[in-house]
Each structure stands twice: as structure tokens, then as C-alpha cells.
Specification:
Elements: H1 2-37, H2 52-68, H3 72-100, H4 106-128, H5 130-149, H6 154-166, H7 174-202, E1 206-210, H8 219-227, E2 229-231, H9 235-238, E3 242-244, E4 250-252, E5 255-256, E6 261-262, H10 274-277, E7 286-290, H11 297-312, H12 332-341, H13 345-356, E8 362-367, E9 370-374, H14 386-398, E10 403-405, E11 416-421, E12 424-433, H15 438-451, E13 454-459, H16 464-476, E14 483-487, E15 493-496, H17 498-503, H18 506-510
Parallel strand pairs: 9-10, 12-13, 13-14
Antiparallel strand pairs: 1-2, 1-7, 3-4, 5-6, 8-9, 10-11, 11-12, 14-15
């Protein structure tokens, strides 16, 4: 898809080029401000004097700062940047003409041209007018005024000006940060608006999430570029931070509580405007509409299966004779949804017991009065780790708990099962490790807690301190954690609450257990 690649290359070229222009202008402003502020009077201790002369000089600096926004090199740089709106418009028109044989009518052309002109005017105003004043120059003036009125040391004032304009410890300065963020976002949003207009006209439902991943790319965009193909029905769930990958794994990205959206996204982003906003401020990615035929068949088939499963999990009339399981398919997502509809702990435990004792499951083995059963559609039977998984189930049977391995859709290979934790049945992810490396076990836990709230983990060759290192990695990096059923090399089990993992109390509970 050469047309898509052209659009992405243009967005990258525009953003990188403007970043250089903004940084050069920022350096010029900093040098000018330092030169002007050196004229401020100081006392013998190097403190800025609180004098009328200094206040008058601040007014002179303020006037010169205002004039810098009209600097000819800066104006020329903005002029060069806004030409990319034209370039992108032509590239997008070429993409839709080549792939969908769609060209704009006269009315649509006028609308498109008006959208472009508004975007260009807004960008110029933001980079030369009130936007620049409010976000950069006003704050510079505040720093200088505070320095004079508080009698700050000249060296401290100079450092504060440097931190603000040039950035702390190699970070981006205020001028370049504001200018590049606004310019890049404006150009990307304009491109997204064009995409959205053509998507509606053509009635398209499939998209490709594409763009360059750079050092500052957010996790949300990294996951979506890996997912690549998106159907419009998935967007509401994606904005909740839950992204279903091509292999069926659901990856959860962090949510910013203030916006209720993934970190970095623009407040007010909805399924309706997601195509315009994509990953948010400074995002270089695009949600490009594509025809159904371009999307790999296995991706389309998986979506159809997911939609059927969703349809199957819609609330049904209460079954006769209070048989809870009769309206539930033996898959973990449906069971979880059914559990949410039940009001009492007793009802939820009854549902689990009915599933474990259902004739659709085959008995694998029993230990005392406890048993392990497997549904014929459980995909884990085909995995290399199946024998280890069954050994874990036998260990759990020895503790007095039944285990039921559930059915799974398509090619999923997660060990979704029912087992007891803290004396009650629940959905559990089985994980097994022979490694003594904390990083390996940390990865297993990270993946497991993304799949569910509870993990059964058996470790064969790891000691106390290594396991603590693995768990502490998750806590230190603020990854999601849940409840843990730990199985040692002797087959003994110990249940640990998520709250104890988060607080660190788990260390006392597992000391001597391994």
C-alpha cells in the first residue's frame, strides 16, 4: 500500500523537520532572554534588586519577547510546515482514488479545501499568536517578574530560565515542546479528519493502525501497531484500554483516571472521533480505512467468532429448576459474565460446581475425593506444557480442590481452568516454570495477570529471594497484579491475596515455603 506509506513518511518528515526548526528558535529565544536579563541590577551578593529600574527593564524584555514570535526565520519555518497540509491532502486523495476508485465531487472538494484552510489558520495562530503567548512567553515573563520581586539570586534565575526554555536534564524545552506538539497534532488530526470523511462516504468498517514508533511512542500506540487490523466494532473497547491481539490475547494498557482513557489521549476522545485523534497529543499514527479484502482472512474469521461469542453471552431468561449452568457456554469469558449477573456467593459457587460436574467434561484423574476434568475443546492438551499443567492440577487435587479445564475458542492456548482459591472456586490461569531467573517468572506473572485475576504458579527451581525479585518487578513498575496460588516443587500449595502482594506482606507468607 504505497499510498499509506507515503502519508506516514510525510507525517514523519513534517514532524522531524519542524522539531529542528522549533529547537533552533528556542535556542535563539533563550540566548536573547539571557542577554537581556543580564542588564538587571544585582547587589553585592548577586541577588536581583527590587527596583523600579529593574521593573522597567522587565517591560522592555516583555516587548522583545513578543517581537520574537514574528521573527522572520520562525515565520519562514511555519510557512514551510503548513505546506505539508497540501501535500497530505493530495496523497490521501491519491490513495482513495487508487484503492477505492473514489474521487471527490465538487461539493466535497470545497468542504475539503475549507477544512484544510481552517487547520492551517489555526496552526499559524497557535504558533505565532495567543497560543504561543499563553503557553511560553507569559510563563517566561512570570519567571522574570518573580525573580525581581523576590530578590532571587541571578544564578538561580538564570538556571530557572534555562530549565524552562531548554529543558531539565536533557528534556525538551517549553517552546519546542509546545510548538512541536501543537504542529504535529494539528497535521495528524487534519489527516485523520480526511480519513474519517472518506470512511463515511465509502461505508468502510476495517482499518489499519499504522505509523512510526519512536522513543516517545506510548504503550497504547505500540500495542495497536502490533495489532494492526481494527474493526470499527472494537473501538469502544480499545478506548477502555482493552486490546484484543491477533492471537486472541487481551492486552490491557494503563488508563489515566482524569480522562478515563489510555495515557496520552486527548480528553473527550470517543469512538466517533478516535479516527481523528488516534493516540493523542504528538501522535504520528493514523487509523487508515481499508477494504475487507485487504484484512487477512484469519483476522476476519476471529472477529466473527468473537461476535458470536458476545451474542451468546447476552442475558437469557432464567433457566428452569434454577439450573444456572444451562445458559452458559463452557468458556471463561461467558462464565465470568454470568458470574457478574449472580447476586450471591452461594449462587456463584453453585455455578462453578455445576460446570465441574457437567457431563460435557471428561474425567482426567481423581485424587481422593477431588478430581480433574477436561473439556474436549480445551486447546492446552496440544501444548508441550500439558503434562506439567496436569501435574499442577494433581497438586491442587491433593489440597482438596477439584480442577476443570475449560473450552477455548479458535487457536487460544491459555490454561483457563476452575479451581479453588481461599476455599472458593474461581477462574484460574495456570503457569509453570523450571527457570531460576526472576525475569522469566516476572514475564509469566505479567502475562498471566493480563489474562485474568488469579494465577496458579508452580516453580521448580527458584528460591525465596529470586521469587521476591520477580514479584517486586511487577510492583515497582506498577503492573497489574492479582491473587496467586503458589505451588512449590514438593506439590504443596499456598494462596496469596493481591493486597498482600501489593503491600509486600506476601514475603512473610512464603518465607520457608519454597
Amino acid at each position: 500500500m504505497a499510498g499509506i506509506k507515503d502519508v506516514i513518511k510525510t507525517l514523519d518528515k513534517a514532524a522531524d523537520g519542524f522539531d529542528s526548526i522549533a529547537n533552533a528558535e528556542q535556542k535563539k529565544i533563550y540566548e536573547e532572554v539571557i542577554t537581556l536579563s543580564k542588564d538587571l541590577e544585582t547587589d553585592i551578593f548577586g541577588r536581583v534588586k527590587q527596583t523600579i529600574t529593574n521593573l522597567k527593564r522587565l517591560n522592555q524584555i516583555k516587548a522583545k519577547l513578543a517581537a520574537l514570535s514574528k521573527d522572520k526565520e520562525w515565520v519562514a519555518g511555519i510557512g514551510k510546515f503548513v505546506k505539508y497540509f497540501d501535500i497530505l491532502q493530495k496523497q490521501q486523495n491519491a490513495y482513495f482514488a487508487e484503492n477505492f476508485h473514489k474521487t471527490l465531487g465538487e461539493s466535497a472538494k470545497k468542504r475539503n479545501e475549507m477544512m484544510k484552510q481552517i487547520a492551517v489558520n489555526n496552526t499559524i495562530e497557535a504558533l505565532m499568536g495567543d497560543g504561543l503567548k499563553a503557553n511560553v512567553t507569559d510563563k517566561l515573563n512570570d519567571i522574570l517578574l518573580r525573580g525581581v520581586t523576590s530578590g532571587a539570586k541571578w544564578a538561580d534565575l538564570q538556571q530557572e530560565l534555562r530549565d524552562h526554555l531548554m529543558g531539565k536534564e536533557g528534556g525538551q524545552g517549553a517552546f519546542a515542546r509546545y510548538a512541536t506538539t501543537y504542529a504535529t497534532t494539528a497535521l495528524s488530526q487534519y489527516t485523520g479528519q480526511n480519513n474519517q470523511m472518506m470512511t463515511k462516504d465509502l461505508g468502510l468498517e476495517w482499518f489499519m493502525y499504522t505509523g512510526s514508533n519512536i522513543e516517545t511512542t506510548r504503550e497504547f500506540c505500540e500495542v495497536l501497531t502490533k495489532k494492526k487490523w481494527i474493526h470499527k466494532s472494537e473501538i469502544p473497547t480499545i478506548l477502555q484500554g482493552k486490546i484484543t491481539m491477533p492471537d486472541g490475547e487481551v492486552v490491557e494498557v494503563p488508563i489515566y483516571k482524569k480522562t478515563n482513557l489510555p495515557y496520552g489521549m486527548i480528553e473527550g476522545t470517543t469512538p466517533e472521533n478516535f479516527q481523528c485523534n488516534c493516540g493523542g497529543w504528538n501522535c504520528r499514527h493514523q487509523l487508515i480505512p481499508v477494504s475487507d479484502a485487504v484484512v487477512p482472512k484469519q483476522i476476519r474469521d476471529r472477529l466473527r467468532i468473537q461476535q458470536k461469542v458476545t451474542e451468546a453471552t447476552k442475558p437469557l431468561p432464567a433457566p428452569a429448576k434454577n439450573v444456572l449452568y444451562s445458559s452458559v457456554l463452557p468458556y471463561a469469558p461467558q462464565i465470568i459474565e454470568k458470574l457478574e449477573q449472580l447476586h450471591t456467593r452461594r449462587e456463584r459457587q453453585k455455578l462453578f460446581e455445576e460446570i465441574i460436574n457437567d457431563d460435557a467434561f471428561n474425567l482426567q484423574f481423581s485424587v481422593g475425593e477431588a478430581k480433574t476434568v477436561v473439556h474436549p475443546d480445551h486447546k492446552g492438551k496440544k501444548s508441550d506444557s500439558w503434562e506439567s499443567t496436569l501435574a499442577m492440577a494433581k497438586d491442587i487435587n491433593k489440597s482438596g480442590s477439584d480442577v476443570a479445564f475449560l473450552a477455548e475458542n479458535d487457536d487460544d492456548s491459555g490454561a483457563d481452568a476452575i479451581a479453588k482459591m481461599f476455599g472458593e472456586y474461581t477462574i484460574v490461569e495456570f503457569k509453570y516454570s523450571e527457570s531460576a531467573k526472576p525475569s522469566t517468572v516476572a514475564h509469566l506473572l505479567l502475562k498471566g495477570f493480563k489474562q485474568g485475576e488469579n494465577i496458579a504458579l508452580k516453580i521448580e527451581n527458584m528460591g525465596y529471594s529470586e521469587l521476591c525479585d520477580a514479584i517486586d518487578y511487577l510492583i515497582r513498575n506498577k503492573h497489574k497484579v492479582g491473587n496467586l496460588k503458589l505451588i512449590n516443587k514438593n506439590g504443596k500449595t499456598k494462596d496469596i491475596y493481591a493486597k498482600d502482594i501489593k503491600s509486600g506482606k506476601y514475603k512473610q507468607k512464603i518465607r520457608g515455603f519454597l
